[in-house]
Each structure stands twice: as structure tokens, then as C-alpha cells.
Amino acid sequence: MWRIIVLTILLIILYFMVRSALRGLFGKSKDVARVQSSGLSSELVQDPVCGMYVAKEGAYFLRQGERTHFFCSDSCRTSYEKKLSSA
């Protein structure tokens, strides 16, 4: 009985590790709106959607007038755009 429990726990851990690795590999396939300019420093900015801190260099961004918002992922940027369009 203990073997089944231990095996189940190990399989769950393996599942989450593989899922995390796949998200890292395929999660940023839409690099259309990524900052590629070398003029930006590696200053950390806070994502307005999830609150995570990201480096300006290489972050997703959205320009709104003269203001630029930076995001950790394309899904956070899309979520912010939806929030703006519904307001």
C-alpha cells in the first residue's frame, strides 16, 4: 500500500516538473511585442496585472500614449488590454 502512495506522489511531482518545463519552453512563442532595444537598462519594473517584478530588457510591453507598461508574459499583457478595452 505504501508503495502505491509513494509512487503516486512521485508521479505528481514529475507531472508538475514536466508541465513547468514545457511552459518555459513554449510559453513565450509570441515575441511580437518584446523589447529588443539595447538602450534600456535591466531595471526591474512591476507587472500591473500579477505584481511580479520583471527586467525592462526583454519584457513584454504596451505603449499607451506616452506611457509604457511592462509585463512578465503575453497573457498578462493581453489581460491588461482587455481590461482597458472594457473600461
Keywords summarizing the entry:
alpha+beta, Ribosomal Protein L24e, Chain: T, 2 domains, two-stranded antiparallel sheet, two-stranded antiparallel ribbon, 2 helices, elongated
Task: Outline the structure in words.
With 87 residues, the protein is an alpha+beta fold. It has two domains: 1-29; 31-87, Ribosomal Protein L24e, Chain: T. It contains two helices and four strands; from the N terminus they run αββββα. The chain has helices at residues 2-26, 74-86, and strands spanning 44-46, 53-55, 60-64, 67-71. The strands form two sheets. Strands 1-2 form a two-stranded antiparallel ribbon. A two-stranded antiparallel sheet has the order 3-4. A hairpin with a 6-residue loop joins strand 1 and strand 2 (53-55). The longest helix has 25 residues, at 2-26. The radius of gyration is 18 Å and the shape is elongated. The termini are far apart. Mean pLDDT is 80; it is low at 28-38.
Total count of domains: 2
Share of residues in strands = 15-25%
C-alpha geometry: elongated
Secondary structure tally, helices: 2
* CATH class category name of the largest domain: Mainly Beta
Strand order of the largest sheet: 1-2
- Following the backbone from N to C, one meets helices and strands in this order, namely HEEEEH
Oligomer: single chain
Largest sheet, in brief, is: 2 strands, antiparallel
Q: Structural class of the secondary elements?
A: alpha+beta
Helix percent reads 40-55%
N-to-C span: 55 Å
Annotation, overall tally of beta strands: 4
Q: Which CATH architecture of the largest domain would you pick?
A: Roll
Low-confidence stretches: 28-38
Average residue pLDDT: 80
Q: From the 3D structure, determine the CATH topology of the largest domain.
A: Ribosomal Protein L24e, Chain: T
Task: Give Rg in angstroms.
Answer: 18 Å
